[in-house]
Design brief:
heterodimer; A: 486 residues; alpha/beta; nine-stranded mixed sheet; two-stranded antiparallel sheet; 14% strand; globular; B: 659 residues; mainly alpha; two-stranded antiparallel ribbon; two-stranded parallel ribbon; 24 helices; 8 strands; flat
Chain lengths: 486, 659
């Protein structure tokens, strides 16, 4: 792997500690497994790829929870209220707006739509101190609206799921780049070395698959670990009982061989990652089992998130949100959560209400509970919560009362982590079709998130085949949205 | 490129500026003037158009078309006589300090002379879409070569740009140790003061190394015994021959090649749909390696197998040529783009994938950089990417063509045609009955469904061929964005070597353009500086862990230099002289002494294998299955789709253990 602007620690330090630990004969100490793990852990603290690093400047937040709404929820039915759209139900798109959109790279947004607008079937009302308009789809979110910062003018470069989703995750509409979670852990490491620094939680992943959340060209130490939120977070985490007592000795032997191999072949990212993951897996036998004990949470917390609800899908997203809180509480740097319970997501090409009503019900309560819970614990200041999708939907009708994808202008929200609460930034035109004030690219969004984390977004780079890759792109066109940062 | 389709010479006429091109001139004189004019236009393009062209118009001046030149800019016409001066010449020759063009890198005396002559001869103009390149030579001989212009004469000492040189065999250094010519090249590179070659492997580990390296499987106990008990001195060499003849050899090396050409059994985009017919290409590759197909043919078939067959395939060999075009189909496939009117983006991605994969797989050159801008380190311009891309400009999916032999296709058609006709008739009748519940309509529909089932299907495969339009143009995309097309280019190879447009061959298949065939023949030519070096380096890498060039897909400046250039060129030459036989090269690798060496145990030992190697995932899995007698020896079947992958998409597997 080519050298990069941030050095990846190499093996000498590890050889040093393994020498001392290997000789100790851990299993012979006669302690129980977890106690041994704890004892050894103190000695195993060492400089690794995941060791926490100081930010470039004082950080506004420490961790990120990214709630990814797969498939494109509609902004005009949720957080971007457009009275004119309600008036123009069944009418064609106003000529001035059609013309403005047609002259941009978003002209294809009309493709596949009827030439008529569809009013939102949902009622909007005002909430919070600022009187923000929110639809009846999100009653719980409406209750925490004063903590949220809305961006109404986000744009993607493709109107198709996979490219837009790749772009939101990695900065590029093509697959193969590194995801935001990998970049952030590459830049900052993780505070808790007993848990992965970058965790994904999902049932069905985003469209375009693992290429979304992958480490891409970044060293394999920065790949995410998927945890389950039901039962043990990792399959096969605990050893078979007959192996329990000798497990540590076995791992030490494997590590010793790996170390010998590493000392012969020199720095090698995959071997680095392999050695690190044996250790991490060993430590996770206690740490991951512990973080996964959602049922130990007090019942009022469980019901606040919705875990006690009978609806399995609501329950499932609630468990993910609660798990996300427990992870950042323990110092995990980046948690990527996907809401998609099945293969459809928010992709309401027909019968919008059949799609959006249940999906909002599954996600609204847990997302709002997460904000409240973090706030109560004083964690919201240092945790950035992002609610976003790859794009929104058109105000035009598609098929039978559905809506088409819309990359020209849509809404996301962020909360905590140095974002101004109770803020609205940017806007779309009168019908909610295209951003017309402060258009925000995903690159700007990434620059903003990195800035909140105390990372110089132009400096966070990795050299691949002579090219200095950055999540904000090589062109240097990204600008953080300073107006929304505290 | 000499095929000027519409070479339009435009003679200019200005006030005080005579038309010089007259009928009385002889053909050679006209040709000479045209030559000068093309060179002059190329110079103007290279030196002036970046500030006076479509992107920028400094001084309201453009120099990219004849109309704009005539018009002039703020200072008036460039070619008009004024005070005994011509503005164009005055601005380049340094006589006017206020007007020094180009401002940073003044033209050389010979370049100034060229423009003087051009103006004096009437400033002939050629449409820049046509080949002004044809008047330009390679970067070493011609200062007007676009690469030389663009990079100011730098970047021309790239090692892989140099022709492959015939190597004389080095003097023996460890005569008693060296076993083959290859060993002489290896030892010539060693410094004997630092020690001696490491020990040979013992027989058992050597047999194991050979078996895994050539076949991807462990040796069976019987095999080991057989070799060990064979008293003849060439026992190992005969074992090598057996391994090279094993059907597992092709499977093992197909895995390497399939990785190089980005093979996958799914679409790699959006829903990642299963490619149920991809396996035919997989088997084509296995067969090619097992039969030691000449690498030249292997190249040409993958890039242009369809161009070699006239009509439906008449033989199994022609079927294989069609299947080989699966190479062109293996990139990510975006099926959803048309739903959002983004087919232009998907098309641009397809062509970029073909361009970049072909350049890196066969030539070890990184054309992906030049998709958006000139290469940052190698002698490749942005136009080079699009000239290369133009070879693929006509491609279309050909899956519906099928791969049945000609007589089968004919009989299928004979069988299907009347049924299709009948179905069409029936459909018309159905449409004429409005009521969907009408019993006659329901009955008709049933008949249609029944008849449809009688249709016989073609045998499908992943195929690519050319569409009907063979004149498709390729535009350079500004910053790589397909929504910002700029000047068009013609098919052409790397302009550092050959700036002229490529001569497009007329193929046997009348339905294809010949473009890919032309590219394939250039790649497969012995003159090509990269092809043979790149493949023998891959073979070396397969046997020794690291390639002689350790950056196997990058033979440019950002890649690594060859550790032993003489050996690389010697191998490349041997390869070409032995009919581009892959097995020949592999045999010379594994029968050498250096191959038998142990990984060095001490610092004063030499070996080309520097460290022990891990088995690949496939080797490890197959070894487990082979040892336990579970390895299935089947061919001609679709790839196995692992069900666990669906249940645990992010790599959590569940085999045993407590929950």
């Amino acid at each position: 792997m080519a050298p990069s602007s941030r050095t990846i620690p190499t093996h000498p330090s590890r050889r040093h500690w393994l020498g001392s630990i290997g000789a100790m004969g851990a299993a012979s100490l006669g302690l129980d497994r977890i106690a041994i793990a704890d004892l050894l852990d103190r000695d195993r603290r060492r400089e690794s790829a995941m060791t926490a690093k100081a930010p470039d400047f004082p950080a506004r937040c420490q961790s990120v929870i990214f709630l990814f709404m797969v498939g494109g929820p509609s902004q005009v039915d949720s957080f971007d209220y457009k009275p004119l759209l309600q008036e123009l139900d069944g009418k064609p798109v106003p000529e001035s707006i059609r013309k403005a959109v047609s002259e941009t790279k978003h002209a294809n947004v009309f493709h596949g739509c009827h030439d008529k607008l569809m009013a939102s079937p949902y009622r909007f009302s005002r909430h919070g101190q600022q009187g923000m308009w929110i639809s009846e789809l999100f009653p719980h979110t409406a209750n925490v609206v004063d903590d949220l910062c809305f961006l109404h003018s986000v744009q993607a470069d493709s109107n198709n799921h996979a490219p837009a989703s790749y772009q939101l995750h990695t900065g590029d509409i093509r697959s193969g780049k590194a995801s935001l979670g990998s970049w952030v852990t590459y830049g900052l490491g993780s505070v808790n070395e007993d848990l992965p620094g970058y965790v994904t939680l999902f049932d069905a992943g985003p469209l375009g698959g693992a290429a979304n959340y992958t480490n891409g060209f970044l060293p394999p130490s920065y790949q995410p670990v998927r945890l389950r939120t039901q039962g043990p977070p990792v399959f096969d985490l605990l050893p078979p009982t007959h192996w329990e007592s000798s497990q540590r000795a076995s791992i030490d032997l494997i590590q010793k061989w790996n170390e010998e191999h590493a000392s012969r072949i020199g720095p090698y990212g995959e071997l680095e990652a392999r050695i690190a993951s044996y250790e991490l897996a060993y430590r996770m036998q206690s740490s991951a089992m512990d973080v996964g004990k959602l049922d130990d949470e007090p019942s009022y917390i469980q019901s606040e998130y919705g875990i006690d609800q009978s609806d399995k899908r609501l329950q499932s997203f609630a468990r993910k949100c609660l798990m996300a809180r427990r992870l950042v509480e323990r110092g995990v740097r980046f948690v990527q959560v996907y809401d998609m319970p099945d293969k459809d997501g928010w992709d309401a090409h027909a019968k919008l209400t059949d799609n959006h009503t249940p999906r909002a019900r599954w996600t609204d309560q847990p997302s709002a509970a997460l904000i409240r819970d973090l706030k109560r614990r004083g964690l919201l200041d240092q945790t950035l919560v992002i609610w976003a999708s790859e794009f929104g939907r058109t105000p035009m009708m598609q098929g039978d009362r559905g809506r088409q994808h819309n990359a020209a202008g849509f809404t996301i929200w962020m909360a905590g982590g140095g974002m101004r609460p109770g803020m609205r930034y940017g806007s779309t035109d009168e019908i909610g079709l295209m951003a017309n004030e402060h258009p925000i690219s995903f690159r700007d969004l990434h620059a903003t998130i990195l800035t909140a984390l105390g990372i110089e977004y132009e400096k966070l780079s990795f050299t691949v085949s002579g090219r200095q890759e950055r999540i904000t792109g090589v062109a240097g066109t990204a600008r953080p949205i300073r107006e929304i940062l505290l | 490129m000499t095929r000027w389709l519409c070479m339009v010479a435009v003679a200019w006429s200005w006030v005080g500026f005579p038309i010089l091109l007259g009928a009385q001139e002889s053909a050679p004189e006209v040709e000479a003037k045209q030559h000068i004019a093309k060179r002059a236009i190329r110079l103007v393009q290279a030196k002036c158009v970046s500030c006076h062209g479509p992107e920028k118009q400094e001084g309201n001046l453009r120099l990219d078309t004849v109309e704009h030149l005539k018009q002039g800019g703020d200072r008036g016409s460039l070619l008009e006589h004024r005070d005994g001066n011509i503005l164009l010449l005055r601005s380049i020759d340094g006589s006017d300090p206020d007007l020094q063009m180009p401002p940073k890198n003044p033209l050389s005396p010979s370049e100034i002379q060229l423009l003087r002559q051009w103006v004096a001869e009437g400033a002939l103009w050629f449409d820049t879409k046509e080949s002004v390149n044809s008047a330009t030579g390679n970067a070493w001989e011609d200062e007007l070569n676009p690469v030389r212009q663009r990079f100011h004469g730098e970047r021309l000492d790239l090692w892989s740009l140099k022709p492959i040189e015939r190597q004389s065999l080095p003097e023996p250094r460890f005569p008693s140790w060296e076993r083959s010519s290859l060993d002489r090249f290896a030892s010539a590179d060693w410094n004997p003061q630092q020690g001696a070659p490491s020990q040979d492997l013992e027989m058992r580990p050597l047999i194991r190394r050979l078996s895994f390296d050539l076949r991807g499987l462990p040796p069976s106990p019987e095999e080991v015994d057989e070799v060990l008990e064979d008293p003849s001195p060439d026992a190992i060499d005969r074992y090598i021959d057996r391994l090279l003849a094993s059907p597992h050899y092709g499977r093992h090396f197909a895995r390497m090649w399939l990785d190089v050409v980005r093979y996958s059994d799914s679409n790699g985009f959006d829903w990642d749909e299963y490619r149920k017919d991809a396996w035919r290409f997989r088997d084509y590759v296995i067969d090619a390696w097992n039969h030691d197909k000449s690498f030249q043919n292997f190249i040409v078939e993958q890039l242009a197998g369809d161009e070699l067959v006239n009509g439906a395939p008449a033989t199994d060999e022609e079927v294989a040529r069609w299947i080989a075009t699966g190479y062109l189909r293996l990139g990510p496939q975006d099926n959803a783009a048309p739903l959002f009117n983004e087919q232009d983006r998907a098309r641009a991605e397809l062509l970029a994938d073909l361009t970049e994969t072909t350049a890196s797989a066969f030539l070890g050159m990184t054309l992906s950089c030049c998709r958006c801008h000139d290469h940052k380190s190698d002698p490749l311009t942005q136009e080079d990417h699009y000239r290369f891309r133009a070879f693929f400009a006509c491609v279309e999916y050909g899956d519906k063509l099928g791969i049945d032999l000609r007589d089968v296709q004919e009989s299928l058609e004979k069988h299907n045609q009347p049924i299709e006709k009948e179905i069409e008739e029936l459909k018309k009748q159905v449409e004429s009955i409005k009521d969907k519940k009408d019993s006659k309509r329901v009955e008709l529909q049933k008949t249609i469904d029944r008849r449809k089932k009688e249709l016989k299907a073609i045998t499908p495969a992943l195929l690519m061929t050319d569409g009907q339009d063979h004149t498709l143009e390729t535009a350079v995309f500004f910053q790589g964005d397909h929504r910002s097309p700029r000047q068009t280019v013609q098919p052409g190879f790397f302009s550092v070597l050959t700036p002229e447009n490529s001569q497009v061959i007329k193929p046997i298949n009348p339905k294809t353009s010949g473009r890919r065939l032309s590219l394939a023949q250039w790649i497969a030519s012995p003159e090509n500086r990269w092809t043979s070096r790149v493949i023998v380096n891959r073979l070396w890498q397969a046997q020794f862990g690291d390639g002689l060039v350790s950056s196997e897909n990058d033979f440019g400046y950002t890649g690594n230099l060859p550790s032993n250039p003489a050996m690389l060129d010697w191998l490349a030459m041997q390869f070409m002289e032995h009919d581009w036989s892959l097995k020949h090269v592999q045999r010379s690798l594994v029968t050498s002494r250096v191959y038998r060496q142990q990984v060095p145990r001490q610092s004063n030992e030499y070996a080309l294998r520097k460290s022990i190697r891990r088995l690949s995932a496939e080797q490890l899995r197959d070894a487990t299955l082979a040892c336990s007698g579970l390895l299935q020896d089947r061919r001609g079947v679709a790839s196995h789709l692992a069900q666990t992958a669906r249940r645990y998409p992010s790599g959590q597997s569940r085999v045993s253990g407590r929950q």
